[in-house]
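Troubleshooting entry. Yesterday's outputs looked truncated, so today I'm pasting the complete records for two proteins to confirm everything comes through intact. If either block looks cut off, that's the bug. Protein one:
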Amino acid sequence: MGRFLAWIRDRSQPRSKVREYAEAIAIAVVLALLIRTYVVQAYKIPSGSMLETLQIGDHLLVNKFLYGIPVPFTHERILPLRNVQQGDVIVFKYPEDETKDFIKRVVGVPGDTIEIVNKTVYVNGKPYHIPSEQHTDPLIYPADLQPRDNLGRFTVPPDSYFVMGDNRDHSLDSRFWGFVRTAEIQGKAVVIYWSWDGQDGRVRFGRIGRMIH
């Protein structure tokens, strides 16, 4: 009982400003880390692989809990709200260098059959077109030269996803380096919260608040 009363007295003593600031900063850092790890993360678009959907200089918020909360030090996720779906724009660790984050659109989910013929993507035998895709290079490369425009039929394996950039002729994606594993996915891109045109040095106010589809 004496120790408890002593603890009460100690807690009632005025704390120094330095200690208060230190505690506030520590709490803020912990909360920021938890939010960044499990809830939402900011991401900046560095390249034009997702044009015109996403512009260089767009700043996004990424939902990190939609596909499940990552379990530290494992490849497991718990309590997913839903699975990754075709058409989702996802941020993931680049399979060939996990220090880098990439952003692409999911084209094929586990079990889907994919084929690319003269730039047209076929999923399960049907053409897969989206309004936001673009082709700016009229050249069509044969499959034996490179896989950008022609890719033989294959099936997406379990726990894997086939992803492509909307700027189809200028995107380093699954056509070149393979599949994205579930464990590499960071989350789903949700909204543009800031957009800065680095060339013109201006804010793109019309893009702020735009949902990502």
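Protein two, checking that the full record survives here as well:
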Amino acid sequence: MPINILMPALSPTMEKGNLAKWLKKEGDTIKSGDVIAEIETDKATMEVEAVDEGVLAKIVVAAGTQDVPVNQLIALIAGEGEDAKAVAAGGGAAAPAPVAAPAAVAPAAAPAAASPVAQAAPAAAAAPAVSGSRVFASPLAKRIAKDAGIDLAAIKGSGPHGRVVMADVEAAKAGGAKIIPMPGAAAPAAAAPKAAPAPAMGDDQIKKLFAEGSYEEIPHDGMRKTIARRLQESKSTVPHFYLTVDCELDALLALREQINKSAPVKDGKPAFKLSVNDMVIKAMAMALKAVPDANVSWTEGSILKHKHADVGVAVSIPGGLITPIIRDACHKTLSAISNEMKDLAGRAKARKLKPEEYQGGTTAVSNLGMFGVKDFAAVINPPHATILAVGAGEQRAVVKGGQVVAATVMSVTLSTDHRAVDGALGAELLQAFKGYIENPMGMLV
């Protein structure tokens, strides 16, 4: 019986991916462990390994195809004793394998501990939208539908195998879907209807505002679509609250210079070279450990209080940005953080990060100081409850002992999810951060 190769889920949240390249061609012999294709997600390009053996009889989805749903049939392998040509001739319309069947491919770089999660995702996505009284929908779609009072059973899902996704719920809200009253709530009043919001301008309407030939149209890639969706989700669902403080950097800069000068030399190069951002990461992690009530994530049913301070760091890459994570940063040395950050940033720009290296985390740091930006407010990346926006260190006049003196000052702004981190708690976290920045020896003990 032919072996179906299905579009794999390379992360628990992946619903679609781009089939970038086939590394095997029809007629090639496939062995277990062979890398057969490259799949692009919104954040990375990953190699895919075969877990079965045989002959690649038919490529169903061509290289370069975008937005291929998870669990869709992408190729067929002729098993032992089967005629590859016969499989190819009769396999073009083959249906995807049942959900319970094992996937025929696996992410090449995924560690064994992560594979159960990654393999569980396609099963959920492959189920029909409705089975009896159960509706299959993404967690975000369920939350938005619940907040809007929309019956998910009335929505036709456009996700993999009929799964209801956020876009379906938003469309239902705009077009009018079956409304179900929440327990204990009055039915929606028919009187005094609200004025309908002005419809958003369509692509063609926007283009008509500009002279033909005066612009270049660049289609959105997967990364830009994901960034747009997540930023819109964050700003529309997370009540942001902002706090700003100024931190004096002179003691930190002096300590950084001293540490860098003492770095051991290996193969003619220093073993590490600390940046100010490395010390910001450490200070933020230690501040979260000092104020554990701020090291949290909001869910509809509870607040998750994290035991480790895992700091995501915004890295600019072609076409967008990504936030690789320094895990348990408060317990790592500054030199370890520096070297790990350089490795993660390098692989991020090459789009070679594994999903577990940029998903999760308990907070994030976004630094635009190198561009001369004095201060700004960053958008929270759910499920984080905080993000720290770091500005440039610059010489400013400050008053000390009644005298005006020059000092190197850096402004930082903390964005908090006000559902989980109140103003006073956010201020306490910022004061702890400021304490470590202005008394940096505390990060070494």
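Both blocks look complete. Sanity check on protein two: Residues 222-237 form the longest helix (16 residues).
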